[in-house]
Specification:
482 residues, alpha/beta, 7-stranded mixed beta sheet, 6-stranded mixed beta sheet, 15 helices, binds nicotinamide-adenine-dinucleotide
Length: 482
Amino acid sequence: MTRSDPTPYPQPALLIDGEWITDTGAGEPVLNPATEAVLGHLPHADTALLDRAAQAAARAFTRWSVTPALERKRILNRAADILRARSEVIAQWMALEQGKPVAEARGELAGAADIFEWYGDEAPRLYGRIVPARGPGLRHEVQRLPVGAVAGFAPWNFPALTPARKIAGALAAGCTIVMKPSEETPATAIAIAHALEEAGLPPGCLNLVFGVPAQISEYLIPHPLIRKISFTGSTQVGRHLGALAAGSVKRATMELGGHAPVVVSADAPLDQVIPLLVGAKFRNAGQVCISPSRFFVERGIYDRFTERFAEAAAALVVGAGTSAGVQMGPLANDRRLAAMARFMEDAGARGLRRVTGGARIGNQGYFWQPTVIADATDDCLLMTEEPFGPIAPITPFDDLDEALKRANALPYGLAAYGFSGSQATANRLAAGLRAGMVGVNSMAISIAELPFGGVGDSGYGSEGGTEGLEGYLETRLVSQTV
Ligand code: NAD
């Protein structure tokens, strides 16, 4: 970064009880994945600071939970407006720290602002109900109350959307939150916290902590003042955190990995489907939990689909997310580069057909070529393990029932997609794909007002839609003689 840069990367900091803390004596550098240059130094919270954050959230809860819903709505709506107004600057920071193109970052921020607005609007609609009594003189009232202080854990691939879902859901419901965004993408979450502060959110309602992820989760999840956990990340880590939550009888929402199948039937309109699928697959360099990642294509169009899909993938402009015209940025960290090499090694050992790409680009920054592998076997690594990167495996099918069986064969169940020009086939796809979110002739599944979540190894609970608020509410029955 130069002095003349109009949007210098901000100083990373913790936020505890309204205090911004930039130095704790421990920390780590934040890297730009396009250059591997250090963007800033992130302070780490020790257990004393984590305890302060939990205490602050619990203290703030006593006031925030009884703050009128209309006031909670106003604050969340104002934060949405502030995020929209600052979108250009925050998008630059997100592109610097995460790698995605600025245009994608803008889109993500627009989605995050929508989430604050939508959840804000829902706050005054959290109704209870009266259940008719069996006789006179008795009233049964079912109340929906905020569960308490929440601990939220978000990964690095959507630095705005994922923290927004957790923070907005918790605050709208009347909960407070200790949020651990990813250590790799802190500036975006910090910008969200500033927006909420300026919108009037009282101190302690949102606390941001960073540190060693395992140490933070092992301390905060069993903490007696934390009443609910929300985690987004890999199935492997989710299993561990879910067990920690269960051990201390805490409610948990787990949004874990996926490996979304896409079934393309021979009558699908390829002119529309290919750009849509290439855009979705290579968005954020494939580091998207709902990314289409296993392509089942009916044999009659298989060669044509593969060729055109690979042509469009190879034409993508790859570069730093902050550079004009770039369509795909680098991978977010060197772990993903190593993972891509492993997928290619397995594909090579099995003799799968490499149609385009397959290698790292250059030796500085974590760039990987948009890659297409044809004739993928159902048991290869690419078809069984979430690629979380820009490699698309494609395989032919002969019969729709066979395709559905193969599409549903993994233990994951986050997203699934199907494309067909026939209503009857579209209906079979809609009924037959097993996942928490199914797109048929549509990729529009991640929108503020829609439930977002998986089944099977992809986790439990939803974020988004009215279902998202449910996760932050508990039920209290008052049965009263009147
Ligand atoms: P990882 O599994 O170590 O980490 C995933 C996320 O969980 C990171 O943000 C990390 O900080 C956090 N984390 C890890 N251990 C934790 C712990 N004990 N307590 C709390 N948080 C913890 O791996 P990674 O290299 O960061 O990502 C690789 C894999 O993670 C990908 O292949 C993908 O499957 C999955 N992932 C999923 C999502 C998603 O949106 N569901 C997002 C990012 C990564």
